[in-house]
Amino acid sequence: MSFSRSSSRRPSPALVVSSLATGLLLAAASTAQAASFSGSGALTTDYVWRGVTQTQGDPAVQAGFKASADNGVYGAVWGSNVEFAPETKASSELDVTVGWAGTLSDDWALDVNLTHYRYPSTTVDLNWTEAIGTLTWKQNTWAQLGYSNGALATGEAGTYAQLGTKLPLNEQVRLEAAAGYYWLDDAYDDSYAHAQLGAVWAFKAPFELRVTAHATDRSAKTLFPGLAGSRVEAALQTSF
Asked: What pTM was estimated for this model as a whole?
């Protein structure tokens, strides 16, 4: 995911991550008895990532696929349409992830992964890679930390932290809230905060309707004018 800014940067380990993901998916497929497969899809009125729109406020179609081995190792691919600055000619995003997820105890779970963000249609190099760790408590509350030495394809370091929680109201409705902070001083001499609050209605399995309100601080508006600030998105999502 990118915020439509670009600059010269060090080469990203795209081939390494892609090869690892491909090998993991093939290995999981060849040992189907020891692997599980899942997917997701969404139609959303806006693609908002870390408080900033990736589609200039326009709708997005998104889909993903994941293969997980019994030992917790997994590979995943996820895609969406995007719309950045016109000169980038960016129209699509493809995320390739390899990682491990598992339980640490009855209440705690951990997911650590390497995610590579690719923009195959661009005329400039917007690709970059991030290491992400997420610690979850009782499946409803999480703390996430991400780090990249080439954040947002700038070639400079960036660190992201998020705290979030889910609050089930009944079997069909839940609230979701999260707050994050993105340290981008090396890349942009500034950092920013954002928050989001959403409601999810699981009206008919496996389909859900989600409405989320997003807000960012002034620094985000300065860093990414017209892309940050307050906005509301609605999405029809499913998993299988």
From this structure: 0.88
